[in-house]
Design a protein that fits this description.
Layout (H helix, E strand, L loop, with lengths): L1 H56 L6 H11 L6 E6 L3 H16 L3 E2 L7 E2 L3 E3 L5 E4 L5 H17 L4 E4 L14 E5 L6
Parallel strand pairs: 1-2, 1-4, 1-7, 5-6
Antiparallel strand pairs: 3-4, 5-7
Helix pairs in contact: 2-3, 2-4
């Protein structure tokens, strides 16, 4: 009888130890699942960061086909006077050359900006990001449609245009006799 009681006590202890081990195993499984979830989230964040880095490293450009599509959309506005303003980085200056070529092929008229500080004797220097098109307020009625067409054509080709505004107080140094096309550095967002 004593042996039976001992065997029952041993069995009860074994069951209790097994229950403790099962609960520990469940806890470990939960920790593993949580660790796997954190790892998946970290991988997703890493993939997003790599994509954003790739976007930053990829130069803004316009293919010949894109330039032709843009030009076709702004050709209905021949003779529009414009000048160029650019950030000094290579991405902005390369894009400026493509946009300038596109505007000229559409029949727009380049006028150098009124500034003693120029990039390549072609564009005024700015410290800005993104692209914006400015129409002097006093010429809004005659040039706004052409500026909107340019803005929309650039956006349609994947080149975001961040602003479209101008007034005499904002841009005193830019001159009032032409549209201003500003090509700033690549935006970080």
């Amino acid at each position: 009888m004593k042996q039976a009681e001992q065997e029952r006590a041993d069995a009860a202890q074994s069951l209790a130890a097994a229950e403790i081990a099962r609960k520990e195993a469940e806890g470990f499984q939960l920790q593993i699942a949580q660790a796997n979830e954190r790892a998946a989230q970290a991988e997703e964040q890493s993939a997003k960061a790599n994509l954003e880095l790739a976007k930053l490293k990829t130069a803004r450009t316009l293919s010949i086909e894109q330039q032709e599509r843009i030009a076709s959309k702004i050709k209905p506005f021949p003779g529009i006077p414009y000048d160029l303003w650019v950030s000094g980085d290579s991405d902005s200056t390369a894009l400026m050359g493509l946009i300038d070529s596109t505007l000229r092929s559409a029949g727009w008229t380049f006028n150098p900006p009124d500034t003693p500080i120029m990039f390549a004797n072609k564009a005024g220097i700015i410290a800005d990001s993104g692209i914006s098109i400015h129409v002097p307020e006093e010429h809004r009625a005659e040039w706004e449609a052409s500026a909107v067409a340019l803005r929309n054509a650039l956006i349609a080709e994947g080149i975001p245009v961040t602003a479209f505004a101008d007034n005499a107080e904002t841009n005193k140094q830019m001159g009032r006799t032409r549209i201003h096309v500003l090509i700033g550095s690549k935006p970080l967002n």
